[in-house]
Amino acid sequence: MKSASIIMIVGSALLLGLFIFPLWSISLEAPQYPSGIGMNIHLDGLQGKEKHDLQNIDGLNHYIGMRKLPKPEEMWEFSVFPKVVGGMALLGIFIGLLGLFKGISPNWFLTWLIIMCVLGILGMYDFNAWMVDYGTNLDPKAIMKMTDADGNPLSYKPPLFGTKHILNFVAHSYPHTGAYMMGFGMFLTFIAYIVGNKKRKTNQA
Amino acid sequence: MNKIGKYVLGIAALIFMTNCGNNNSNSNSGAMSSSKAEKVYVAPGEHDEYYAFFSGGYSGNITVAGLPSGRMLKEIPVFSQFPTSGYGYSEETKAMLNTSFGFVPWGDAHHPDISQTNGELDGRWIFINENNTPRIARVSLATFETEEIIELPNSAGNHASSFVTENTEYIVAGTRFAVPNPQRDMPISDMKGEFKGPLSFVSIAENGRMNLEFQLNMPGFNYDLAHPGRNKSHGWFFFTSYNTEEANTLMEVNASQNDKDYVAAVNWKKIVDYVKNGGGKKAPGTYAHNVYDDKTHMATSTMKEGVTMVDPREVEGAVFYIPIPKSPHGCDVDPSGQFIIGSGKLSTDLSVYDFDKMITAIENKDFVDDSYGIPVLSYENTLAGVVTQPGLGPLHTEFDGQGNAYTTFFISSEVVKWSLETFEVLDRQPTFYSVGHLMIPGGNSRKPFGKYLVAMNKITKDRYLPTGPELEHSAQLYDISGDKMELLSDFPTHGEPHYAAGIRADVIKDKSKKYYELSENEHPYAAKSEAEAKVTRNGNEVHINMTTIRSHFAPDNIEGIKVGDKVYFHITNLEQDFDVPHGFSIIGANTSEILVMPGQTKSIVWEPKREGVWPFYCTDFCSALHQEMQGYVRVSGKNSNVPLKYTLDE
């Protein structure tokens, strides 16, 4: 049980990486931007890859009538997400400590992981919904009103995950370091559950 | 060169014709040509290996080219107004061209030189001199903008300039046209002994600021070119002079009579100490000192008065003359500092002086003469050797750092490679035509990059498609990495490049600024956001603090301007991205447009003369909606009551 609990503590502590490293990365490529332009999504707000990238993305977006990128105080997510992630990390560490000193059941580890997965899916859903709104809810006075082959207004929504052509840009949307740390951490908590379970079964046998 | 009459050109043409028959290197074909093409080919999107900064001569500016391609990258305005950017026209930069004679819109830029640390190019700044209204400018190699110009009083024809000592301690300026010092009304024919040729020493501070420390009041010969000692000869400066005859008319004949003129050897460290200990006399001299600040984006001009004048005879062991044959021009010091090469431009030989021998001669007081109280050293006893009959009309020498020197010959129109060990000629290549200066990147330092040589030719004739009587000058690029020089390409250069300075691109390219931080903009009329844009009236003076961002001005409709107003447009470019300038111009403005870099503020004045509604627009194709980037100013009669109003999207 000892090693399982330590793995649980390490795994959930890896969530704290999100307070340092970005969760997601969206980068844009076009010939006029030889060194690229893009932003990193952190738990508590957006950050340009280069100093003035956010302003420059807004500058580009104004042609197609997209709103300006949100400041931290303009989206509840940027104040709630840090609390949720921080809370879950502390909870995971706490459960791990209980495992270490009180020998609670590894099922608690699994429960934590399931809650984390549900929260993760909700987070992704929310993120996607924001991008849909941001990419389709356009200023009716937009300078350029583009339509697809069927005459429907073009959506400028970046992909949730992957690469997509948007007008003259190629947009890449992928997880960043913080997300990888979280993913690996969650995987570790699953390992903690398996290891803990095995130990318990051998102990019981 | 100007002193050499047209008959010389005739000789040049003759010699060239004979040369042409012997050495027809122009008609290589097949495999050879394609390998030459590869050597100068820089693939699309790739960068050149070297920056080359060409003086513009009578353009007053510097042009920047890449080597080996020869592609022109930029023209940096220095001493001349430049409508492309508004330099010298904008309210902020007019002060850069201020002098003790008032505003001078033009200059004659000659010799660029890059700052050095420990004798190697450090790529902080490039300096360049102005010949006509004696000045030195300092250009930042981070912004490629002129940051400072200092005028040199009591001088005329600042040609022997702007050469930098090996730790950028000092930069020198000379006097090519001896003049009364101080200036006064006197008969020209009384010049002998009365005219002077002051040499100016300008110190460079850590932040680049220039200060005129002292002037060395030399006898009135024409000080033509200079180079600092380096390595072992660091602490000395060498100047060539002609017209030791002190002739004042028909100079081409009368200044060519003496068999020998002089190289002046100046121990500047001694004079610096002398001045620091209170030596020298305060002398009159009014000069402008203009400084551009890239935070306020404005230049200020300060008129200064007085200079420390040093009599060379009063500083023991500091100034000597060395005889040199036939009206010398170039004066070059090899990377080791051992050899000083003087080129008598009417001579067929090159005189190479030995620094150690010079020092010994000074110690032994081995003087053959005295000229106005300045000891003259013996020619023979300071000579390291003579390069005999290398060509006709030697001008300038540069070095490859591999023990070789390369000298240009104006009259015989060629570059000659010779050995610093044996003084033997190793190779010669024709130039097209009549080469003046040559440049090896880093050639004026302890560590030349001995790969390419650029010859700057004075005569272009038929080298390119004809463009009427007036032609751009022509440069030629040689590969000097092998035993023999190989002519790779021709490319036209702007104005008259007298000299150039080259540096490996990687020393400066990553430090090149991409835009100015808007948050650091301290211009008093900057509008750092559209919310800060405003129009204010003070009597008949109206200040419009206007912003630009793709693709509109704010405000873009202005009413309440009256005929007779003096309207200042202060344009702040809100962009914070690389290469997104916006321009501004308005119909009826009696000045140039301005091109405003991201984060920068620039201003022009407009004095509306007629009632009406007058458009202004962005002059730089900034974006897809550049054509829409425009606005209107309503101008009403002098006594109208139209209220001041400024709007955007109302």
From TrEMBL, chain A:
<feature type="transmembrane region" description="Helical">
    <location>
        <begin position="108"/>
        <end position="125"/>
    </location>
</feature>
<feature type="transmembrane region" description="Helical">
    <location>
        <begin position="80"/>
        <end position="101"/>
    </location>
</feature>
<feature type="transmembrane region" description="Helical">
    <location>
        <begin position="177"/>
        <end position="196"/>
    </location>
</feature>
<protein>
    <recommendedName>
        <fullName>Copper chaperone NosL</fullName>
    </recommendedName>
</protein>
<feature type="transmembrane region" description="Helical">
    <location>
        <begin position="7"/>
        <end position="26"/>
    </location>
</feature>
<keyword id="KW-0812">Transmembrane</keyword>
<keyword id="KW-1133">Transmembrane helix</keyword>
<keyword id="KW-0472">Membrane</keyword>
UniProtKB/TrEMBL annotation, chain B:
<dbReference type="InterPro" id="IPR008972">
    <property type="entry name" value="Cupredoxin"/>
</dbReference>
<dbReference type="InterPro" id="IPR051403">
    <property type="entry name" value="NosZ/Cyto_c_oxidase_sub2"/>
</dbReference>
<protein>
    <submittedName>
        <fullName>Sec-dependent nitrous-oxide reductase</fullName>
        <ecNumber>1.7.2.4</ecNumber>
    </submittedName>
</protein>
<keyword id="KW-0560">Oxidoreductase</keyword>
<dbReference type="GO" id="GO:0050304">
    <property type="term" value="F:nitrous-oxide reductase activity"/>
</dbReference>
<dbReference type="InterPro" id="IPR026468">
    <property type="entry name" value="Nitrous_oxide_Rdtase_Sec-dep"/>
</dbReference>
<dbReference type="InterPro" id="IPR011045">
    <property type="entry name" value="N2O_reductase_N"/>
</dbReference>
<dbReference type="InterPro" id="IPR015943">
    <property type="entry name" value="WD40/YVTN_repeat-like_dom_sf"/>
</dbReference>
<dbReference type="Pfam" id="PF18764">
    <property type="entry name" value="nos_propeller"/>
</dbReference>
<keyword id="KW-0479">Metal-binding</keyword>
<dbReference type="InterPro" id="IPR001505">
    <property type="entry name" value="Copper_CuA"/>
</dbReference>
<dbReference type="InterPro" id="IPR041114">
    <property type="entry name" value="Nos_propeller"/>
</dbReference>
<keyword id="KW-0186">Copper</keyword>
